Amino acid sequence: MLKFGTFLTIAVAITTAVPTNILELDLTPEEAQKYLNSPPFTEPKLAGRTAVLPLIKFNDPRFRSAEAGPTLGHYWKNGHEIENPDDYVEEVYDASQFHGQDGLGAYAYGYETPESSKVENKVRSGDVTGSYTYRAGNTNDLIKVRYWADSQGFHQEDNIPKVVLKPVEEAEDVRQARLAHEKAWQEAAAAARVQPDPQYVYKQLRGEYNPQVEYQPAASEQQGAFLAAPGQAAQAREAKAYYGSQGQYQGGQVYPTPYPERIEEPEPTGPPRGFFYAFNYPTSILVAKKDLQGGAVNPGYPVDQDTVSVQAKHY
């Protein structure tokens, strides 16, 4: 009886740990709300690792076996095919996602992957709550963020490392250059107040400044110069073609257009409808054996605590 009870407990645990894939379309708002109120998960967490597999190339005798995996014997990392597959392993993770809407403005969605996870929920009143987590690229630390938006605005709580801003320290050579520039600017400003000609200082230095030079009018101010009227300018331009709902317009004439008229589809009508879907799928990451989580690689590829099962063998 004890063995039977133990087996039953394990069976129930396995059954509840693997959610059933769901695809429900054309739901009433009330039916959709039932799914939105009980999503597969409400807190973000990284997808758990389920297996660590060896990389088996297409020309390996083991490729046709079940251990070859779904990569068809070719593996790429950072845009290059891995030539030394014995130095790498394939970590397989149980990723998942869900998404649902009730047709009246409420929605919920979420996903779990090996490197990030997120959940978000919006109610019909417009309030939004959500949270996400991810591993920082440089330190591999687990960053957690919780946010919400309501009538008071957007709010956020997180454990992101805070950056303390420090004032810029001015080097001595930069300081001297700044002071020289400010002095030159002040001298130029004082000279401009005396002589507003912007070229005064420049011309004076080159000996070109002569206040007795007669004024030379611009080309548009010379006698006899005029600008063409808008109508006259339009006649001199090359005729352009325009396409409208009635046809092609060119040179004052309308010709039948070769393009069909745009037909606007009517807006959908009827009562609001919702949907909901949720599913799990395997995803993998190629890692070097020396970087495998859980320590050095020993026979059987020992892994860390989030591993469900290890299906690889050591050769």
UniProtKB/TrEMBL annotation:
Keywords: Cuticle, Signal. Residues 1-17 form the signal peptide. InterPro entries: Insect_cuticle (IPR000618). It comes from Leptosia nina. This is Cuticle protein. It comes from the Eukaryota. GO terms for molecular function: structural constituent of cuticle. Pfam families: Chitin_bind_4.
